[in-house]
Amino acid sequence: MDPTIDEIKRRADIVDVVSQHVALRPAGGERFKACCPFHDEKTPSFYVSRDKGFYKCFGCGESGDVFKFLQKVENISFFEAKKQLAERYGVQLPKFGKELSPEQQQAYDERDRLHKIMAACAHFYREQFAGNKGLAARDYARTRGLSGKTLEKFGIGYAPDAWDALHHHLINKYGFKIEDCVASGVLIE
To answer: Which of 73, 84, 108, 167 has the lowest tally of Cβ within 10 angstroms?
Structure first.
């Protein structure tokens, strides 16, 4: 148990954090709504509850707390989300061990970049599976008896019939460098 996580949750205003990425509108009481940032939609199905400290999309099923939202929307690790929120809301994080050498920091940064690329790929394929183009894949999964829980647990996705779809997604949407995508093994030259 990390007491700083509870302190960050207590201080962080999820509406404030989400509204930096999504245009929220009041939906009564301490609830707000918007179009979901995690899938394409025209009618708002994404709700944020200030008093409960969580978000939920009734369209794609995505939900979580302020940490998970920041991780997903900015494609960062839990540690990075925790660090950002701690700085923003004045929570002192404990220091562990010694500082990293420049070589260790460089290795850590590279590993983190590659991890972000892999996470963006997984998100892309799950997004394709949940979208209109993934209808045949979802039907196939249903005929194989795979439940929604199983699909979510294993992060099942769908690769569209376009050789450069992932490339455009990683480069244009997230701004990853092509050499990092090649180094991660998700793209080839």
So the answer is: 108
